[in-house]
Amino acid sequence: MKKEKSKKLYCFVDETGQDAGSERFIVVAVIVTADVNEARERLEKLERSTHILNIKWHKSDYRYRIQFMEEFLRQDNQNLRIYFLKVNKLVFYYLPMVEIIRKSIFENSAPGAQAIVCIDGLDKFSAKKFTNTLRTEKLKIKLAKGARDESEALIRLADRWAGCVRMALSGNEQCKVLVARAKKKGLLKEV
After folding, report:
1. Torsion angle of the four alpha carbons 100, 59, 165, 40, in this order, in degrees rounded to the nearest 10
2. Model-wide pTM > 0.70
3. Phi-psi region for residue 105, left (φ > 0), alpha (ψ -120 to 50) or beta?
């Protein structure tokens, strides 16, 4: 009898707010519950069509940011779940990252599923620490690794939602509307 292949769950994480001027630290986890390559290709196509390309949120033109987010919310994103956590700046960044990863994976994983976690800018030593910290009896973490948002569309999506949430919390009306729409659709959830 063939052994059943375990289901994989992908978690892509980015944050905003480590700069000195920020009062809040916001971390975002994007969970992919189906074909990760299909989700990546769909995002890359959307990046090209909205002219935002692979540019980070804070470096991109404001109109391209908003256009990307609006088009993203029009798409069928049933295989994606986006979680965010906001904390006061005094907390060490590692703790909210571990918290959001654990909660978002637990909420989306089936028994026996393995999670592959990809965190923006994580070095190999820190990746091992994250893997060991996250691995529990109930949470099967196959690998925590680093990636740069310039090279991974799903990390860029996390970066864009982190930036959008940050701007919404700072009073930007268009971002408030985008966040509210995403929550209403069940796509975005605060942890």
Report:
1. -50
2. yes
3. alpha
